[in-house]
Amino acid sequence: MNQVKTESIVAISLMEKLKCYAQILKLKITVFVVISAVFGYFIGAATYNLSEIISLVIGGFLVTGSANTFNQIIERNHDKLMTRTEGRPLPQNKLNVNEVIVFAFLSGIIGITVLWIALNPLSGVLGLLAIFMYAAIYTPLKRISPYAVFVGAFPGAIPPMLGLVASTGSFGFEAGMLFAIQFLWQFPHFWAIAWRLHGQYQKAGFKMLPYDKKNKTSAVIIFISSLLLMLSSYLPEYFNVTGRIATVGLFLLSCLMVFPAFKLMQTQDDKYALRVMLMSYVYLIFSLLFILADKV
C-alpha cells in the first residue's frame, strides 16, 4: 500500500511560534495598510470617534492579516524557490498548514464582523472583497499573467477608501478619488519590486512584469505608470474633493517616482527600480497627509 510522504513540522518554542505568526500576517505591511485606512478615516470624518477608530484598526488588521495569510498558504511551495521568501514559516515547516488555514479564516471572519457591526455594513463588504480579490484572484493569477497587478491593484486600493467609508457610512466621490489615486500608485510600486526580483520570480514561476527579461519595454511601462500617477495629481482638486495644497503635494511626491522611473527607462539599471520602490512608500503616506492637511 502506497504511503503519502508528509513533511514533519519543526518543533519550536511559544515565542518562536508568535514570531512565525507575525511573519504569516506580514506584520509590517499590515500595520502600514492599517495606517493608510486610519488616514482615510480622518480624511472623511467630520468628527472623530475613538471607538470607531479602534474598531477600524482591529478590523482592518485582521482582514489584512487574513489576506496575507491566505496568500502565503497558496504560495508556500513557490516561496521555497525564492531567496526572498524561503525563510517564511510555511516553507520552513515551522507551522502546520491546517492550523494556519483555520487562523486565516478566523482572522477574516472576525475582522469582517468587526467592520460590519462596529462600523457599518459597507465597511464589512469592502473587507470581504479585499480578502477575496487578493487571495482568490490576484494570488493565483500571478502565475498566469504578467498583468496580474491590474487585478491586485483593486484590493490594494481599498484600505484608504475603507477608512473613509468607515467614517461616513457611504461610498461617495471622495472615496472614489482616494481609491483612484491608490489604484494608480500600485503599478509603478509593484512593477519596480518585480524588476528587482525578476530572477527570483521567474524561478518560482511568477509571471510578474518584466516576465521574459528586463528590457526597455518593461522600463517604459513602469515610467508611463508613474507618469499617470503624476497626471492624476490634479484630479481631486478638479472634482472639488481637495484644494491646491493636495494638488501641489501630490505632484511633488509623484515627481519623486517619475524621475527614477525615467532613469530606469534610460539605463535599465536596478538601482533606479529600487529608488522607484522606496519613493513609492514615501508617496503612499505623505499623499494621504497632504490630502488630510487640505481637509483641515
Automatic annotation (TrEMBL):
The chain crosses the membrane at residues 27-47, 53-74, 95-118, 124-141, 148-171, 177-197, 218-235, 241-262, 274-293. It catalyses: heme b + (2E,6E)-farnesyl diphosphate + H2O = Fe(II)-heme o + diphosphate. GO terms for molecular function: protoheme IX farnesyltransferase activity. One of its GO terms (cellular component) is plasma membrane. It is an enzyme of class 2 (transferase). Keywords: Cell membrane, Heme biosynthesis, Membrane, Transferase, Transmembrane, Transmembrane helix. The keyword Transmembrane helix applies. It is a multi-pass membrane protein. InterPro entries: Protohaem_IX_farnesylTrfase (IPR006369), UbiA_prenyltransferase (IPR000537), UbiA_sf (IPR044878). One of its GO terms (biological process) is heme A biosynthetic process. It holds the Pfam family UbiA. Pathway: Porphyrin-containing compound metabolism; heme O biosynthesis; heme O from protoheme: step 1/1. NCBIfam families: cyoE_ctaB. Belongs to the UbiA prenyltransferase family. Protoheme IX farnesyltransferase subfamily. Carbon 2 of the heme B porphyrin ring is defined according to the Fischer nomenclature. This is Protoheme IX farnesyltransferase. It comes from Vicingus serpentipes. The lineage of its organism: Bacteria, Pseudomonadati, Bacteroidota, Flavobacteriia, Flavobacteriales. The gene is cyoE.
